[in-house]
């Protein structure tokens, strides 16, 4: 049975009493139309069976982009590190930024960094600058930004949050799939023949992964006999006795491989007379330019950065502004990389 023809904008305008331009803007969810008017038009459109034409939308988006001014629309990367452009210092962080920057260019935008800790810049003044510049979209690169600026104060624009430091986040987020990545690292070691992989994480990492690393590891161990299970070693990266903690943990649980986020472990193992990978295997959870030769997980941080831009532009194009009612996450799976710190065991 053929479906009934969808109503046109002209028919919706006649049914609602609004002009065609108002109806079109309301169906695009544009913020320049009063919320009550948008809701009324959208309800009527739904009752009349209106559905947007995807091909027409694509054409209009293309025509709109082809008319863009030579100076691309700016999107902001808001940071709160102690140093300006600190993301350039850490290779993995730089990869995220570059991924976001390249995707912004590909989509016809440009990415600018905005350092909120600029000397003499108060949170109130920072918000005034963003409003005055007419910034519509931004990536919140650190949760600490929201310690001094309320998420509600950012409702005049669209934001996407990088990483996942807490299960409670006011904006959509893009981050590595920490649970999957730990599961992949553990499974890869088992496939290589390691029987007792252990996990040692410094406490600066675990909040970022929201305990997903620990949860994935403990879940993987559930199939093992109790005598073969080992707890995760959590330690203070800057504590003077951290090496003593490591040695005691290793002596008690005798891991034949260690999954970690601390590249100093390789030097420590060799200093203790253990050969890598002959005596013990090592896996790093975040391979980057400064972690050379290791086996481990490439978190595909460039894809994480690009995902931030994807989400941000999608929200901008549908005129979704402010905090979403139901924030969601875009979690990027990592990839296993075989390096020189693990080997096939008999």
Explain the overall architecture.
Helix content is 40%, strand content 16%. The chain has helices spanning 9-16, 20-27, 35-47, 54-66, 91-106, 123-133, 145-148, 178-191, 206-209, 212-221, 242-253, 264-271, 301-317; strands at residues 73-79, 109-115, 137-140, 158-162, 172-176, 197-202, 233-235, 257-260, 281-284, 295-298, 329-332, 335-337. The strands form two sheets. The protein has a six-stranded parallel beta sheet, with helices on one face. A six-stranded mixed beta sheet has the order 7-6-8-9-10-12, sandwiched between helices. α1 (9-16) packs across α2 (20-27) and α8 packs parallel to α10. The longest helix is centred in the C-terminal third of the chain and has 17 residues, at 301-317. The mean pLDDT is 86.
Cα-atom Rg, whole angstroms?
A: 25 Å
The percent of residues in helical segments reads 25-40%
Major beta-sheet overview: 6 strands, parallel
Count of strand segments: 12
How would you describe this structure in keywords?
single chain, alpha/beta, 6-stranded parallel sheet, 6-stranded mixed sheet
Produce the secondary structure layout:
Elements: H1 9-16, H2 20-27, H3 35-47, H4 54-66, E1 73-79, H5 91-106, E2 109-115, H6 123-133, E3 137-140, H7 145-148, E4 158-162, E5 172-176, H8 178-191, E6 197-202, H9 206-209, H10 212-221, E7 233-235, H11 242-253, E8 257-260, H12 264-271, E9 281-284, E10 295-298, H13 301-317, E11 329-332, E12 335-337
């Amino acid at each position: 049975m053929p479906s009934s023809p969808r109503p046109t904008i002209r028919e919706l305008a006649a049914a609602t009493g609004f002009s065609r331009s108002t109806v079109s803007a309301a169906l695009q969810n544009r913020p320049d139309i009063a919320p009550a008017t948008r809701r009324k038009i959208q309800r009527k459109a739904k009752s009349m069976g209106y559905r947007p034409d995807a091909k027409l939308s694509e054409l209009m988006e293309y025509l709109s982009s082809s008319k863009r001014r030579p100076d691309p629309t700016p999107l902001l990367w808001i940071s709160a590190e102690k140093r300006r452009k600190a993301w350039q210092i850490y290779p993995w962080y730089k990869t995220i930024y570059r991924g976001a920057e390249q995707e912004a260019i590909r989509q016809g935008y440009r990415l600018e960094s905005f350092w909120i800790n600029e000397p003499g810049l108060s949170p109130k003044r920072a918000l005034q600058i963003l409003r005055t510049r007419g910034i519509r979209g931004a990536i919140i690169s650190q949760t600490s930004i929201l310690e001094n600026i309320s998420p509600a104060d950012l409702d005049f624009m669209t934001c996407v949050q990088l990483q996942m430091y807490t299960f409670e986040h006011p904006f959509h987020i893009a981050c590595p799939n920490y649970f999957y990545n730990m599961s992949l690292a553990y499974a890869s070691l088992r496939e290589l023949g390691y029987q007792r992989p252990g996990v040692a994480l410094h406490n600066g990492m675990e909040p970022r992964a929201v305990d997903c690393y620990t949860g994935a590891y403990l879940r993987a161990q559930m199939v093992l006999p109790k005598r073969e299970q080992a707890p995760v070693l959590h330690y203070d990266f800057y504590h003077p006795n951290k090496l003593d903690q490591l040695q005691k943990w290793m002596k008690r649980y005798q891991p034949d491989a260690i999954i970690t986020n601390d590249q100093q472990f390789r030097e420590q193992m060799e200093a203790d007379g253990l050969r890598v990978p002959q005596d013990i295997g090592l896996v790093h959870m975040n391979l980057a330019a400064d972690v050379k030769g290791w086996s481990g997980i490439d978190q595909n941080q460039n894809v994480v950065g690009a995902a931030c831009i994807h989400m941000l532009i999608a929200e901008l194009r549908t005129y979704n502004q402010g905090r979403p009612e139901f924030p969601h996450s875009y979690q990027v799976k990592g990839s296993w990389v075989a390096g020189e710190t693990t080997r096939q065991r008999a």
